[in-house]
Amino acid sequence: MKIAVFDIGTNSIHMLIVEIRDDLSFEILDHEKDTTRLGDGSFEKKRLAKTTMRRALEVLDRFAKLARKSGAKKTVAVATSAVREAKNSGEFLHMIERRTGIRVRVITGEEEARLIFMAARSSVETRGEKVLVVDIGGGSVELVLGDAKDTPFLASYKLGVARLTDRFISTDPPSKKELRALEEHVESELKKPSKRIRKIGFSMVIGTAGTMVALAAMTYQDKKKRPLQLFNHFELSRKDLLRVHEKLVRMPWKERLKLPGLEAKRADIIVAGSVLVTALMRLLKVKRITISDKGIREGIILDFIEKNRKGLKTRPGEEALSIRERSVRQLARRFAANEAHAEQVARLAVELFDRTVTLHRLGDRERDLLKYSSLLHDIGYSISFKKHHKHSHYLIVNSDLDGFSPEEVEIMGAVARHHRKPLGKKKEGHFVSRSGKYTIKVLSSLLRIADGLDRSHFSVIESMDCRVTPGSVVLTLHARRDAELEVWQAGARADLFEKVFKRKLVILAGSAKK
């Protein structure tokens, strides 16, 4: 099912064209954005300006035509802070419906917070613990504290970056007096809720929306001198942010325009955003914020799926999976992976991992990454048989996998890439640490053997025994029928295993266990 999602925000209007699949996952087919600045000047006057309304109507009319041409069967449109607070919002909504046929729902701050929380939890692995989600928009800031079952704290505050800029900043660069007034206002508004949130307790802070993403991009560029490619699960540290913040508050607008990682249309409001985030981190007493690249628009999609679940097909057991595994399996199905082969290879790879743990000393995190890499190792066949391992790498690192850090995505891509052919001299991604490079070697060596043990794609191997000696690793396979092909292929792929573990790999074919 194809739907169009419209988000009419304070700074920008977004439209997504979304394909909802049979397993209730979704794919964003198209994304259009226009920075209309609908909220400019509206918060003090409580009215939307005629010029900005006309501009917004033109944008919405264009987006609506694109949605119809795309074949979208349903339109879901919401408006947030700027429209919510304007006295002439009814007039604006009537103009939209008359010109485009789109009926817009104005949502409350609490509803906005709920949708954002839903989206953030769908993209960041929280392991069921309480997390605080912070969304900074142009007109408001949403704070939601909760887990899968409950949200003991959910609130919206009139602290959006466009609103704060309009009210407190009039000079360029901002004066010390303006910055002090802005900081005092933010602190007075957030001091009590921050104290209450700390009392309830949380395991992590997740930051969403454009301001958070921009600050993450700028701090990474400032520190690493290269662009940040993967935002989801990136950790924005307070120390790195403060270093950039001190530069931002002294810069005039023309200098901010040149800052790597900052969109030009956000240069005038980023100072307020930086003041807000640094103050919030101080009040919450946190050293880092985990970035989610999902926000209200993804929340709208997830909410639509949830409310229309009965009319949509679903795959049995899918809801019981973790965010990470569900995301991996959906990606595998999207690229038509051989599911039976992938499951067998993943099972054998994990068994190898468990039986060699005294050698590699890796933990549950790496075990999961091996499983997920195994499930995805052959998705490159959807592009081409030739060099499919390289195509698998490309698809993994460039797909929107939820719940993984940038380093974990790059590790999975590298392990899939190295499941065949020599390891080579290819440099891993920017996020891979020294320990990550060791992890890639170990997991790749295990995946190569596991893949070889299903050479026929008939799931011949049922289980294995493993004996580790000072000079060798002896695998005794238990097979349902003749496993000569599997033994030969696994042995032919033992080079990396033997290099990593400094032991000879001996593979013996035994009878099936009774």
Question: What is this entry, summarized?
Answer:
The protein is an alpha/beta fold and 514 residues long.
What report would you give on this structure?
It is a single chain. The protein has 514 residues and is α/β, with parallel strands linked by helices. 49% of the residues lie in helices and 16% in strands. The protein contains 21 helices and 14 strands. The protein has helices at 42-45, 50-70, 81-85, 89-100, 109-123, 161-168, 176-200, 210-224, 238-248, 253-256, 270-284, 296-307, 323-334, 339-355, 357-360, 364-376, 388-398, 406-417, 434-452, 484-492, 495-501; strands at residues 2-8, 13-20, 26-34, 74-79, 105-106, 131-136, 141-146, 153-157, 204-208, 235-237, 288-291, 461-468, 472-479, 504-510. The strands form 3 sheets. It has a 6-stranded mixed β-sheet with strand order 8-7-6-9-11-10, sandwiched between helices. A 5-stranded mixed β-sheet has the order 3-2-1-4-5, with helices on both faces. Helix 16 crosses helix 19. The longest helix has 25 residues, at 176-200. It is elongated. The model has no long low-confidence stretch (mean pLDDT 87).
> Unreliable runs, pLDDT <50, ≥5 residues?
none
Structural class: alpha/beta
- Determine Rg (CA atoms, Å): 26 Å
Main sheet characteristics: 6 strands, mixed
Q: Roughly what is the average pLDDT, rounded to an integer?
A: 87
How far is the first residue's CA from the last residue's CA?
A: 48 Å
